[in-house]
Structures are given as structure tokens and as C-alpha cells.
Amino acid sequence: MNESSKSALEQAQEEGKYIRKVRSFVKREGRLTKGQAAALEKCWPSMGLEHTQGLLDLTEVFGNSNDVVLEIGFGMGKSLVEMAKNNPEQNFIGIEVHRPGVGACLMDADEQGITNLRVFEHDAVEILADCIADGSLAKLQLFFPDPWHKKRHHKRRIVQLEFAEKIRQKLKIGGVFHMATDWENYAEHMLEVMSAAPGYKNQSQNNDYVPRPDFRPLTKFEQRGHRLGHGVWDLMFERIS
């Protein structure tokens, strides 16, 4: 949030005005297991990132200048940890608002000796605005976001034109915004939004969806969906300007 926005927000709050943000997620706190709590205590000093740190120097954060992949909403972190393990030449940042998922991710990463992963427990939109420099990401991943399937809730879907522009600014030229969903209507929505978003090129040869790339791990949830005949749609859009 820039200074003028902060001032306006603070002034409105002082005047007793209620500012309602349209969130793309519902915060479900849940209960931490002992393992998750222990992992948070042990690993947060080395793997945790705070919104209060402000704009990050990613070379300083990771101790190298490797490409950085950022994932929004990593859930329990299984696939994110697997990707970090399989691609040690890349750095990974995960953002998740649900504390048990952050704890589970850290526990898994610690058990596997992962060193190229950092995590935020915060709202992704604020992290992108305040902590991630423009042109700094090689890839941004958004896998299985809340589909908000009721039509009256579609405005809550995170993939909108304004969001696509925020992502484009954070990607390097040639960087990729990779989305996946198991809701066909949301896949169509994503395709419509991203096809209209300036500065992107669809990596699909047919200008629609791409096959699941090998580097995106197949989750248990997704495997179950396949067995039940559910579809999954991947979209990959490259920043070209």
C-alpha cells in the first residue's frame, strides 16, 4: 500500500467510516497440530517472511540470483515443497493465509531438507503490492483457487483484469503466469480474462488450455478427481511486454 492510500485509509478509519475489502478467500484458522506448531517455531526464523519487511531484495533473501517462482495459496504445501525439491536451481516463495497450511508446509520442507523455499502467512494481494519488486519473478503460480462458483460471488474470484495487470508487473519479460482449476466455468473465466489482459501471450497452441506440465505435481485431490472423471484445466500466459 502506498503512502497516499495508507493516509486515506487511516483518515477514513479515524472518521469511523467502514472500509470493506472484497476478499478472494475466506480465512479459516483451523487448529494447529503439534508438528505444525513445532515447525512454525523452528523454521519461521529461517524460512518465514513478514509483510512488515516491505520490498524484498530476493537475491539477499535466498543468497543467490536464481529465478524466483511465487505461488499464491499453496494449501498444505505438498506440491510446493515437491517442486522446490525437484528444482534446486530455482527459488520458491509461497503465500498462504491459513496457518495450519503454513505449518504443514514448513514441517514437510524441514523433513526434506529444503533450503530454496520461503513462505508468507498473509494476504497475497498486499504481499504483491508491498514486498515483491516489479520485474522480479520468473513465474507466478495459482493452483486451484477458490472458484466462488455461485454467480453472485464471481466478483470474489481472484483472477480479474486488475489482478492480471498486477501479476504482469511483477513478472520478468518472458515470465509466466500459470493457473490451474478443476472448475470448468472458472477455467473459462480465467481464459476470458487473460485473453483480454494486455501484455500477455497464451502459451497454448490453440489459444486455450495447455496439458498439465510435468513440473506441476499431481495432487491426491487431483488424482481422485481424475478417477471420478473430473476435468482439470491449466492455463499458461507469458508476459511479452
TrEMBL record:
GO CC, any one term: tRNA methyltransferase complex
Residue sites binding S-adenosyl-L-methionine per the record: E71, E96, D123, D146
Origin: domain of life: Bacteria
Enzyme nomenclature, EC number: 2.1.1.33
CDD domains: AdoMet_MTases (cd02440)
SUPFAM superfamilies linked to this entry: S-adenosyl-L-methionine-dependent methyltransferases
Keywords: Methyltransferase, S-adenosyl-L-methionine, Transferase, tRNA processing
Signal peptide span: none
Associated pathway: tRNA modification; N(7)-methylguanine-tRNA biosynthesis
Residues where substrate binds: K150, D182, T219, K220, F221, E222
Pfam assignment, any one: Methyltransf_4
Keyword Flavoprotein: no
GO molecular function, one term: tRNA (guanine(46)-N7)-methyltransferase activity
Catalytic activity reported: guanosine(46) in tRNA + S-adenosyl-L-methionine = N(7)-methylguanosine(46) in tRNA + S-adenosyl-L-homocysteine
Alphabetical list of NCBIfam families matching this protein: tRNA (guanosine(46)-N7)-methyltransferase TrmB
Assigned protein family: Belongs to the class I-like SAM-binding methyltransferase superfamily. TrmB family.
Biological role stated in the UniProt entry: Catalyzes the formation of N(7)-methylguanine at position 46 (m7G46) in tRNA.
Protein name: tRNA (guanine-N(7)-)-methyltransferase
